[in-house]
């Protein structure tokens, strides 16, 4: 009864699923259905994403559709399953993690021909739930919805959020909280930890099948390379390097960069205690459980290659029959991370500073600004945004100077910056337009997100959530009616902590 449009049919809603992961051997997953919830209520549906997936938003918003998004009904064509994986969490290895509170419904090929996983998160216990109820609280579900969609419009590879549904059931964390289910859309849910799962079991056959699956799905041109698995590893490394640069350039802190939260497709995945920085401080950590600051802002580009080294270890038997030769190859590939990252970061910093050309001293110029910002508690987002106005006209320097405890520090740096700008032909308006297209004015600031969550949780009020989503949908376009959303918090947020929400 499945058709191409996902129309409602007499026997239920059909999604045009094509489930390639389900064709892998049984030991890759556990087949099971989501656990139904008491009173599903649709909180948010991502209309544009639904259409992109070839799904009819009206069908998804209908009672049958909402039942699917809550896990109360299985759409026709679905082959629901929880995926197996392992992972290093804060440096310690767990040979078995897996989807403990998520169910993959299936894969859809979207309108651009991209295969995407449709997964319910918070959908009940699975054989992989070691502890925990398999559920998600409303707060973390809304946070993931907000932040993942914000990352997408900022142009950063990420999983997406198709829908949020409340369950009408409480979940128990430190207190009783309302429960919810998020429908997550990802290029895939293959993680570094998925490879580690099979490597830990010495299951070479599964490793090869998984690598081939990931190559076909995400890196098809690696297949043509002289050494496909080497090319695969190199391309995963390159994507992670670019992703780290993109996080750093917007002040994003993932918070829990464990190997099981590292996507082979190079997407930002597993939004938990993630948050954006307000004042620029490289040591920023928000996650309550990250007491050592392992996943602090500045550590992210060091942790990524650590995670990729763990990935490389799983690939050794595929790289060469001779273990020394395999290790040498893996190390050569991994050495590519740093230059790729540095190049992506510097290119991004040049764009943030409004530079159209490349000169030797650009990295130092950018670093010196960042150092001055750190010493002067400058807001990361607003400083760069207002720098665009200053590029158009020094009359606007006041807005940037405001961001420095000692404005003279900015003035001294601005002299050097303007000398550098003067060596390029672009006029001020052109430069401002380019800078404003790369330096957002709106990000999901912590105090805004917290206000949205409080309204939803305490008052069942989704007005602030809808408003924030409207603001974040166009992050580069200043709109006077949303001026307050661009401002840093007026109250002290220095002790701000985020929680995994598990
Ligand atoms: P995360 O920190 O969300 O990446 O989760 C790490 C691991 O813990 C994954 O295997 C999750 O499936 C599992 N997990 C997290 N929260 C829960 C929960 N409420 N119930 C069962 N398993 C969970
Ligand atoms: Mg995870």
Task: Report what the structure shows.
The protein has 3 domains: 21-189, no CATH class; 193-344, no CATH class; 360-502, no CATH class. 43% of the residues lie in helices and 13% in strands. It is built from 18 helices and 14 strands. It has helices at 47-52, 57-61, 63-70, 138-153, 192-200, 204-218, 228-250, 300-319, 323-334, 337-353, 362-375, 380-392, 397-401, 407-421, 428-436, 446-459, 463-472, 483-486, and strands at residues 8-9, 12-13, 29-31, 41-45, 81-83, 87-89, 92-94, 102-109, 115-121, 136-137, 160-172, 176-186, 252-253, 275-276. The two termini are 38 Å apart. Mean pLDDT is 96; it is low at 1-10. The protein binds adenosine monophosphate and magnesium ion. Adenosine monophosphate is lined by residues 97-101, 129, 132-135, 256, 261, 270, 272, 500, 502.
Write the layout of secondary structure elements.
Elements: E1 8-9, E2 12-13, E3 29-31, E4 41-45, H1 47-52, H2 57-61, H3 63-70, E5 81-83, E6 87-89, E7 92-94, E8 102-109, E9 115-121, E10 136-137, H4 138-153, E11 160-172, E12 176-186, H5 192-200, H6 204-218, H7 228-250, E13 252-253, E14 275-276, H8 300-319, H9 323-334, H10 337-353, H11 362-375, H12 380-392, H13 397-401, H14 407-421, H15 428-436, H16 446-459, H17 463-472, H18 483-486
Helix pairs in contact: 4-16, 4-17, 5-6, 5-8, 6-8, 7-8, 7-9, 7-10, 8-9, 11-14, 12-15, 16-17
The structure holds adenosine monophosphate and magnesium ion.
């Amino acid at each position: 009864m499945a058709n191409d449009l996902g129309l409602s049919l007499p026997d239920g809603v059909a999604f045009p699923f094509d489930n390639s992961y389900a064709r892998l051997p049984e030991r890759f997953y556990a087949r099971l259905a989501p656990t139904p919830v008491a009173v599903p209520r649709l909180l948010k549906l991502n209309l544009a994403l639904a259409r992109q997936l070839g799904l009819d938003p009206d069908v998804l918003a209908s009672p049958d559709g909402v039942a699917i998004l809550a896990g109360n009904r299985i759409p026709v064509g679905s082959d629901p399953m929880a995926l197996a994986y392992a992972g290093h969490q804060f440096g310690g290895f767990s040979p078995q993690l897996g989807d403990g509170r998520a169910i993959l419904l299936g894969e859809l090929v979207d309108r651009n021909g991209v295969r995407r996983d449709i997964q319910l998160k918070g959908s009940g216990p699975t054989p992989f739930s070691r502890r925990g109820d398999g559920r998600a609280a409303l707060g973390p579900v809304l946070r993931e919805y907000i932040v993942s969609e914000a990352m997408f419009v900022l142009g950063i590879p990420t999983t997406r959020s198709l829908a949020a549904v409340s369950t009408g059931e409480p979940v128990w964390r430190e207190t009783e909280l309302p429960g919810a289910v998020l429908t997550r859309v990802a290029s895939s849910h293959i993680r570094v930890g998925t490879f580690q799962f099979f490597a830990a079991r010495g299951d070479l056959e599964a490793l090869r099948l998984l690598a081939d699956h990931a190559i076909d799905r995400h890196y098809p041109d690696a297949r043509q390379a002289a050494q496909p698995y080497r090319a695969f590893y190199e391309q995963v490394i390159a994507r992670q390097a670019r992703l780290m640069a993109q996080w750093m350039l917007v002040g994003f802190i993932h918070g829990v960069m464990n190997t099981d939260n590292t996507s082979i497709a190079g997407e930002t995945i597993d939004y938990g205690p993630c948050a954006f920085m307000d004042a620029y401080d490289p040591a920023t950590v928000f996650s309550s459980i990250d007491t050592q600051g392992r996943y602090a802002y500045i550590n992210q580009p060091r942790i990524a290659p650590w995670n990729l080294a763990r990935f490389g270890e799983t690939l050794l038997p595929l790289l060469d029959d001779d273990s020394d030769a395999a290790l040498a190859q893996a190390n050569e590939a991994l050495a590519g991370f740093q230059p790729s990252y540095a190049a992506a970061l510097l290119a991004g910093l040049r764009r943030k500073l409004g530079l159209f050309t490349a000169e030797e001293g650009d990295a130092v110029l950018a670093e010196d600004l960042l150092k001055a910002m750190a010493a002067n508690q400058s807001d990361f987002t607003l400083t760069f945004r207002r720098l665009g106005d200053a590029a158009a006209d020094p009359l606007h320097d006041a807005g940037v100077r405001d961001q420095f405890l000692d404005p003279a520090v900015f003035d001294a740096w601005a002299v050097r910056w303007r000398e550098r700008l003067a060596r390029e032909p672009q006029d001020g308006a052109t430069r401002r337009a380019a800078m404003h297209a790369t330096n957002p004015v709106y990000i999901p600031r912590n105090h805004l997100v917290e206000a949205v969550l409080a309204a939803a949780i305490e008052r069942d009020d989704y007005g602030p959530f809808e408003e924030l989503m409207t603001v974040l949908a166009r992050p580069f376009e200043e709109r006077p009616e949303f001026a307050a959303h661009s401002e840093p918090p007026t109250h002290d947020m220095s002790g701000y902590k985020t929680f995994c929400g598990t």
